[in-house]
Amino acid sequence: MKVVVDRSKCTGLGICESLASAFFEVDDDGDLLLLKEDIADHELAEVEEAVQSCPTEALRIVS
Ligand code: SF4
User: Fold this and answer.
1) Residue 47 and residue 28: Cα distance in Å, rounded?
2) Which of 24, 54, 55, 58 is most exposed, with the fewest beta carbons within 10 Å of its own?
3) Ligand 1: does its nearest atom lie under 6 Å from the Cβ of 16?
4) Is 42 helix (H, G, I), strand (E, B) or coil?
5) Does the Cβ of 58 fall within 6 Å of ligand 1?
6) What is d(CA 19, CA 63) in angstroms, rounded to the nearest whole number?
7) pLDDT tens per residue across span 5-35
8) Rounded to 10 degrees, what is the CA torsion of 35, 40, 45, 49?
9) What angle do CA 4, 6, 12 make, to 5 degrees?
10) Residue 22 contacts by C-beta under 8 Å, 6 or more apart in sequence?
11) d(Cα 29, Cα 32) in Å, to the nearest integer?
């Protein structure tokens, strides 16, 4: 599984970063950096939480 970002929806609030910092980082310009996209089984719960917590629904998990 992979996580994907819809950059047209992301507003750089960084909630995803606070929940799954191995995957997401908001840089100094407020742009989201996707540090990695492949999700290991043991990482799925935290990425799911980040996806569900994104206020703009910019994140998705795809298989
Ligand atoms: S929580 Fe959503 S809007 Fe905020 S930086 Fe992450 S993807 Fe972008």
Assistant:
1) 22
2) 55
3) yes
4) helix
5) yes
6) 21
7) 999 999 999 999 999 999 999 999 999 999 9
8) 20
9) 105
10) 35, 36, 43
11) 9
Q: How far is the CA of 41 from the centre of ligand 1 (A)?
A: 22
Q: Which residue type, as a one-letter code, is found at position 18?
A: S
Judge if pTM exceeds 0.85. yes
**What is the rounded CA–CA span in Å between residue 61 and residue 43?**
12
Neighbours of 20 (CB within 10 A): 22
The neighbour count for residue 24, using CB atoms within 10 Å, is: 24
Distance from C-alpha of 20 to C-alpha of 34, rounded to nearest angstrom: 11
